Amino acid sequence: MKKVAITGNIGSGKSWVCELFKQRLGIPVYNSDDAAKQMYFLPEVRQQLVKRFGEAFYLSDKELNRKIIADLIFHDEKAQSDLEGILYPALFVDFEQWMKKQNAPYVLFESALVFEKRLEKRFDAIVMVSASEATRLRRAMERDHCDEATVRARMAKQWPEEGKRLLADYVIWHEKDDEDEALLEQIMRLHKFCGLNPQ
Known about the structure:
Layout lengths: L1 E6 L6 H12 L3 E3 H8 L3 H11 L4 E3 L2 E2 L1 H10 L1 H24 L5 E5 L14 E6 L2 H12 L3 H8 L5 H7 L2 E4 L7 H13 L6
Parallel strand pairs: 1-5, 1-6, 2-5, 6-7
Antiparallel strand pairs: 3-4
Helix pairs in contact: 1-9, 2-5, 3-5, 6-7
């Protein structure tokens, strides 16, 4: 079974493309963001995080101290690296276990930060979902109910769109918001003709 990462910058419509792979083709999708949130509460992960960052990292057995985590991620590169060094191994153990339960020619690993976190070598192929800057801005502002400056600040934390397109094995252009034929054609082309679905 092949492992395919599907990535895209904020507002690209990556999650919608993943949903189409799942609905139309029955391809399993592992949402790494959702899974990572669960990793924090695994006993072995919690133990390591408390040892590194202290008891204040958690508000309770079921709740994180999000202010502390946000401060770590945005203001302390060493702490962020240590956090990822604890979370990512657990995440990929979970991913491998999840994958063994699937029955498909390939699975999709959904993550916005495949390139930023140097995860490329873990996958057989990387798919980049892309759209124009204007479209991505509009989508993110509408989805998150925020202004343009806020979205642009978040965009600045991701690698540039053009560079990611060059690094990806496949690019899906997702300019329209609805389930248009051009988008479905690209998805089917990948599924049938680009080596993701072995004959």
